[in-house]
Amino acid sequence: MGWGSVFAAGIAMLAVLAYMTGSGPPAESDGFFDAVLIASSHTAPTVALVSVALVTLAYSFRHIWLEWLAYRPGRIEVEPFTTGGSVGECDVEQLTLQFRKRLAGVRLQAPKPVPGAASEGDFLEVLGRGGVDASNMLGSLLSLVRAAKPRHAWQVHGVLVERQEAPRFGLTVQVVQLPDGGSPPETVWGASWEEAVTTAADYATAAILTRTRLCRTPWATWRRYVMPGRLLRAYESGVDFERERRYDEALDCYFRASVEDPKNMALRLHIGQLQEKLALHLDALATYMGMLSVDGARPKGRLWRHDGFPARAERRRARLVARYRCVILLGGSELGAQWWRTGRPDGTWTERDTRRRELRSRLRGDLGKGMQKVAEKHEDHRVGTRDPAKLLEEVAPAEAPESSDDRRYLELRELFALAALDEAQVLLADSRRLLHDRRVGLSPESVRLTMLCIELRLEWLRQRLRDVDAAATPPRVEAITERVKEIEHGSEFTRWHEHYNAACAYALPLLDHRSCEATGVSAAFAREAVERLEKATGHADSAYISGRRDWLLSEDPDLDGLRAHDAFKDFEAVYFPAGGATRLRPPHPQRLESSRYVVDLLVQTSQLLERTWHARGRALDGHPDVHTVLRWWADEQETWRLVRALAVDYRHWRTRFELLDHLRRWADANGLDRLAVKFPLYEEDPFCESRLDQGSSAAVARELADAAVKDADARLAAIGEAAPKVRDTDPPVVRNMRMLQATLRTQDSKGRGPRRFLLAALCDHHAALWQLLREWLDAEHGKECENAEDAFRARVAHTESVWHDADSWWRNHILVAAAARGGARPAAALARRLLHAENGATREPAATP
User: Fold this and answer.
1) Cis peptide before 397 (omega within 30 of 0)
2) Which residue has the higher pLDDT, 588 or 33?
3) pLDDT in tens, 364-380
4) CB 3.0–4.6 Å: which of 160, 668, 699, 842 could bond 191 by disulfide?
């Protein structure tokens, strides 16, 4: 507004001069102002005043235009990076182009009712430096016009730097807002030039985004404030990992972002929806209820001064979607199963069991009050008779329900379903206007369809509660169709989510496959559900559907019964084409994909460590550095500890991430490529069609999936028992490893280095350990698996003996043979040399490889 006033003053000055030129000077000069007007009516002063007015207009318009370009935002100029004095060889032009590409995209997405990764959209138009030739009059005029109307308001300067300690590669970046604004320079570091450039681009985006009109979900609360660069970096990395199906790493990034912005409801919604994709339904419910508690603690009756309308709208949308996801979780079957699931029958607890118990303890207070009200409200309609407090209390592992047919489990699900219906009614009443916001994707019709799905589940539960032994009668297809048409109000749905919920209503009866197959209505339900899915794809663009592809094909539990039908197979082949043939999916592909992910993580870990130990054994020089060797064994010890923890707690996402994070830091320190383990898609390794009986292919696929998951679980449990332990009370490899480390330190203090033949033998044994672990994981079930397990256990015992005798190597025939292979001298001379090295205090002479 200030520069607008200056611009208006320049216009006024030109208008006054035009009036004086047209009307002429006043006839008489009676005062100071008349004298000024007479003087300004002459040619020379008029030209000077016009020049001042034009300069004022150009200068003020330039500032106004710069503010507009910064807010719009307009183009941003990224100059080619420069290099510091200590920077080695690198492709500066390529790194600059990578920076511009990363800066040109940002993930901005309103809360959606169905889990899915945010798609990348255009943010800024990024360009390099350009210029105009101002050597002639025309060029001068163009320069004047260009000066009055600049092309960009943002400039980014970067300097590549390098240092000795890890992470080595850095980029000092500074964002400048023309004409004289900007942020202070900041240096970011990475394990590679690409990582440093990507991180710097995210930091630059954080400095620019909050000053533009594009500062919306999930960053609306940061508008006009300085956003930490590490916040946007963590979020963008999480979105990248989520799109690559590296869910454990994505969840850690989202949690790191929430540390920087704990009251960001849209960010918390991302966490809850990703937890649902990981089948962590209890964790997701705790996340959504935490969102509602934090938002409900805000002062009522007044608006916070630092919150604008976009921030308030963002919170309202996130709160609406969180309440809707709470309805989905309470009305589903997975929450009840995880509520009852506790420690193992033998009394042992895993990290995942401990986490579930903590979540139940936190949720029991709020849920207990709500469930008590629900039980009192529906006292005449409840089939279950147990008190809600009894259903929610913690039980011992031996007393937990053994199957889904247990009456306590069915009563808990009935209570949760009644609570979900009540919450859906409140949601419809309180958020009627917000439900019509198309940026959310929810509508009153989609909520009513969700209520229809919960009612279908509730009817099935009540039939089972009345007679657990009898099979439930599935609903009629015509009855569901009538209910759907009532919700449509005579006109077809117009949103993707409405058709998708209608498909879920038809697919739910298929979860009880025995009842549907017995009554012969399975094909009818599958046909109607697929027809609704086809209509849903017609009401969304490709970016939206691709973001929900995994949820639809593998992760949504409501469609588990539908995926085992040929109709769904045909739908997938038409709407989600792949390079190979489309195979029939098992009913619960998410369980199978999660199990394969854990096995793939261990297999890739084994491959990486096997190659590394082989390379170390071959690259030993005459005098290995003892500090480097000690670091090898420390890393090896930590890796085996994490592998063993993963084999026991493979359902705990944090345990899986700890191994990935350790391997990432270890790879960066050793200059190796990082592991990129993703949750595999079922279609990447489907069951062979020859193994599926065409007459009952769905049942066979279900049996094959269950058998594969059980075999993987049993194999992981065996690995947890057989892998080298790291506790002091356990005698094998690691304890002896620590003993040798102490010996190496003592030798180093006396000026003696480690023996090369001994290190080579240990490297070979550890490479063999990782190789046999990989072969065990890859072995087919049966005799081959048993042989691989026996070989791994034997190698663990063998390696233990080598470590045990490493300090007195001449007593172990294996190490004596290794020493003999280490040189070309006669045996007697070799023995004298080894004895001399043992008794003396000098370093051992280098052996000929």
Assistant:
1) no
2) 588
3) 988 888 999 999 999 88
4) 668
Prior bond of 179 cis (ω within 30°): yes
Residue 217's contacts (CB-CB under 8 Å, 6 or more residues apart) are 108, 109, 110, 111, 266, 314, 317, 318
What pLDDT, on a 0 to 100 scale, did the predictor assign at position 500?
Answer: 93
User: CA-to-CA distance for 670 and 685, rounded, in angstroms?
Assistant: 32
Q: Residue 473: what pLDDT? A: 84
Q: Is 525 helix (H, G, I), strand (E, B) or coil?
A: helix
The residue with greater pLDDT, 206 or 736, is 206
The Cα 218–Cα 231 span in angstroms is 11
Q: What are phi and psi of 15, to 5 degrees?
A: -65, -40
Neighbouring CB atoms inside 10 A of 689's CB total 11
- C-alpha span between 68 and 153 (Å, rounded): 8
Between CA 334 and CA 339 the distance in angstroms is 9
Record the tokens describing residue 701, joined without a space. 């696929």
**C-beta of residue 441 within 8 angstroms of C-beta of residue 112:** yes
* Cβ(128)–Cβ(80) below 8 Å: yes
Element (H, E) at 700: helix 697-722
How many angstroms separate the Cα of 678 from the Cα of each of 252, 647, 657?
14, 18, 12
The CA-atom distances, in angstroms, between 225 and each of 183, 306, 327 are: 12, 10, 35
Q: Is the dihedral of CA 373, 376, 381, 386 positive or negative?
A: positive
Average pLDDT over residues 747-752: 52
Strands 125-127 and 186-190: unpaired
CA–CA separation, 108 and 103 (whole Å): 14
Q: Judge whether 409 and 340 are in contact, CB under 8 Å.
A: yes
DSSP 211-260: TSTT--TTSGGGTTS---HHHHHHHHHHHHHHHTT-HHHHHHHHHHHHHH
| CA distance readout (Å), 27 to 44, 45, 797 | 20, 19, 117
Helices and strands, counts by H and E, the chain? 32, 9
Instruction: Give the pLDDT score at 445.
Output: 92
Strand 169-177 and strand 186-190: the pairing is: antiparallel
Task: Please enumerate in sequence order all residues whose Cβ is within 8 A of that of 789, keeping only pairs 6 or more positions apart, or say none.
Answer: 718, 722, 776
Highest mean pLDDT among 136-145, 400-409, 443-452, 508-517: 443-452
In the block, residue with structure tokens 């199957």: 403
b/e per residue, 352-375, with b = 16+ CB within 10 A?
Answer: bbebbeebbeebbeebeebbeebb
C-alpha to C-alpha distances, 206 to 98, 126, 239, nearest whole angstrom: 17, 15, 16
Alpha-carbon span 244 to 681, nearest angstrom: 11
Structure tokens of 770? 């990782």
Percentage with pLDDT > 90 across the chain: 31
Residues in the chain: 849
- Is the pLDDT at 588 greater than 70? The verdict is yes
* Residue range 664-688, pLDDT digits in tens: 999 988 888 899 999 998 888 887 7
Distances (CA, A) of 686 to 567, 775, 784, 807: 17, 21, 21, 50
Rounded-to-integer distance, Cα 560 and Cα 568, Å: 11
Residue 397 is given by DSSP the state G
Q: Hey, which of 35-49, 75-89, 566-580, 780-794 has the most confident mean pLDDT?
A: 780-794
Spell out the residues 6+ positions from residue 536 whose beta carbon is closer than 8 angstroms to its own: 496, 497, 498, 499, 500, 503
DSSP string across 330-360:
HHSSHHHHHHH--S-TTS---HHHHHHHHHH
Q: What is the C-alpha to C-alpha distance for residues 9 and 815, in angstroms, rounded to an integer?
A: 93
